Amino acid sequence: MTASILMGMTCRLPKRASGLLKFGKKAVEATAFLRFNANNSPTSIEHIIFYCTTLESGGSMEILINEHKFAIRLDLAFKIIFIELRAAEALGYSGSSLIDTSLYELIPNEDVGSIQQAHKKLLIDETAQSSTPILALLKAGGGTLSVLIHFLRHDAKRREHSTVTAICSIVGNEIDSALLSVIQTRPKWSSGDWWTDGAPVGSHSSLHYAHTLGKLIKP
């Protein structure tokens, strides 16, 4: 007897899993082969063999990645534990050279504040998501790659096994100075939220502009 179902399977190698997980699981289609004993009743199953096939990209538990995006898998301290080959190529590094490197090492000083606040919010936010403004990633040999980063936390049963996926949307190879002249308005926020000196996360990548925004918009 055979049966086909959809199920969520726990990833045994979450740090190296390139698929994007939801609640620590990956959606698969499982075909089950059931073997019964002579009684041939539901309670007489001797064993079950599952043949599992992962769903295509864009399935209910996955995020579709296109040519303008790439993913970096991080631990909770933002140390890189997996990086797509095209991400390394876009930044000018070999993929293996970035493993165990902190994401903070790829961020210029003026954008560190934005990453810190997104990181802090990610660790305490029940939605397990956080995003950054447009900021720069340092390229090998000089120059920057402008990206917008959306972080997704993948919780595991043991906190030390939890991981973070950084979905990077490519904006350009250099940060346009015109971007620094745009104030993104935000609604009022409570003092309990995590902001940088009164400016909301995502208001802008420039620390100088964050301070300016904090003066213009008061809680």
Automatic annotation (TrEMBL):
SUPFAM superfamilies: PYP-like sensor domain (PAS domain). One of its GO terms (molecular function) is RNA polymerase II transcription regulatory region sequence-specific DNA binding. Transmembrane segments: none annotated. Residues 74-126 form the PAS domain. Keywords: Nucleus, Transcription, Transcription regulation. It is found in: Nucleus. It comes from the Eukaryota. SMART domains: PAS (SM00091). This is PAS domain-containing protein.
